[in-house]
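User:
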Amino acid sequence: MTTVLRASDSAQFLSIVPALAGFTPRESIALLPFHGTRSDGAMRLDLPDAAVPVLHYAAAAVELVVRVPGTDAVAVVVYTDEPPQRTPDGLVLPHAVMVDTLLGCAEGAGLRAVEALCVTPEGWARYDDAEPALHPLSDIVPPPDASALGDVSGDQFSGAGLPPVPAAEEQQVVRVLRGLDGALSSGPAEAPDPADAEVIAAYALLDDIPAFLEAVALAREPLQPLAAAALVWCLGRPPVRDAAIAQWATDHRRGIRTMEAQLAFAASGAPVPDDIGRVFLGRGPAPDGERLRTALHAVRHATALAPREARPGPLTVAAWLSWALGRATHAGRYLDMAREIDPDYSLALLLDTMMRGAVLPEWAFRGRRGE
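Assistant: Predicted structure:
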């Protein structure tokens, strides 16, 4: 069911921005692409660093907005902890030069400006008022229907950490991983010690890895420790890790094909088909969002149970899944966590380069218009 939120004035507009973004931005600029009088999503960017040229930042922001099909207007909301400056000539809002430059770039791109607003701890204001004045934050009251879209009280970093897990389950995962490494990681596969029932059970899950990965994508309950250990083992092996990403973004059949291609590449350097690479780059049909969210939930839980040295692989997969869902801030946090453990982890470095070049995957923009 679609929830329609309407705003009749600037304060009401500010009340629905968090619902459109999925959180309440902090130290950010929110860009809302409009098609006529309608917007169904918000993009968030960090506020510009002092070292970044204002025109460069503004042009890049507008370029991001115009990628959304059908966009003919934009609204801009700055969320900052920086207070306005009171001068003899009146109130000077934070980042006023950047917003003015951004609106100029938007006009040059054929976009009209719907709103240009600033939210500070002292109140909110309009950039386009001849004499800006602060209005009380109490004006910003979420509309009744916004509750249907979930809790948006947290900022862009909320939910990016790993979930708490029982210490006993962590120890169990460590034991099982050690057993799987002994059975599967050195030379020809060897059956685990018959006396170790936990390792045998986890080993059995890996008899058909694409089937196991498919079960993860369909799970509705948190993974049990044995399955979590098997998943951590999979995501620590590049051919399996990359196949998992492709399978969760597509389907079981594509997962099997990707696994075969990755194993062939590892064995002989055979090229990976272009369509598989396109998925990884965020191109092609949009994945099933619920499937990605389920996989991400499982990966985050398994990562929390894993020993520190086994986390870079799962963390980079969590980064890709977050990015594919349009959560670039969460993706960046997971990449930072992976590189804190292994600064040279190759997939983390590759993803960081890719995400800096493409803030979001192509399908994130198409999806905003339901295309």
